[in-house]
Amino acid sequence: MDLKNYISDVPDFPKEGIIFKDISPLLASPEATGHALELLSKGLHDIKATKVVGIESRGFLFGTLLAQQLGLGFVPVRKPGKLPGNVLRESYALEYGTDHIEIQADRIKQGELVIVHDDILATGGTASAACRLIERCGGKVVQCNFLMELGFLNGREKLKNYALHSLMHI
Length: 170
Hints:
The chain is of the alpha/beta class. The protein is 28% helix and 35% strand. The longest helix is centred in the middle third of the chain and has 13 residues, at 58-70. InterPro entries: Ade_phspho_trans, PRTase-like, PRTase_dom, UPRTase/APRTase.
């Protein structure tokens, strides 16, 4: 099954000049979703991770499924102001400025092995910030997982210190 057949290009969304990669067709197909989940979880049973961190918001979709498939806990990384309690914040660079993500400080324990999941690896800024948050909590990132990778944006470079797995390279 070629999962690329389940990704739609939406031109000029969310703004002009951007080609949005829509995963809705993949999610609408139980067969494609199941196949993607099988490929994402392949080899991860042996690494002894305890948590999957999903990055807001599309990283939650397969992140929770992946955690369930592997029998692991799930921890969301969200935009500022969305999580209660004591949170840690990390900034990352955008093309014009910076943005932030947060994690609840007590969700990752010292020494825990963590899988990071997001739907797409573009510039690597958000995923890199999520890895830094996990490390600030005392966790160790054992793999960064993505449905697809936009290779022309060189996001892999920002994650060169981590094992990385992408199902599709676009």
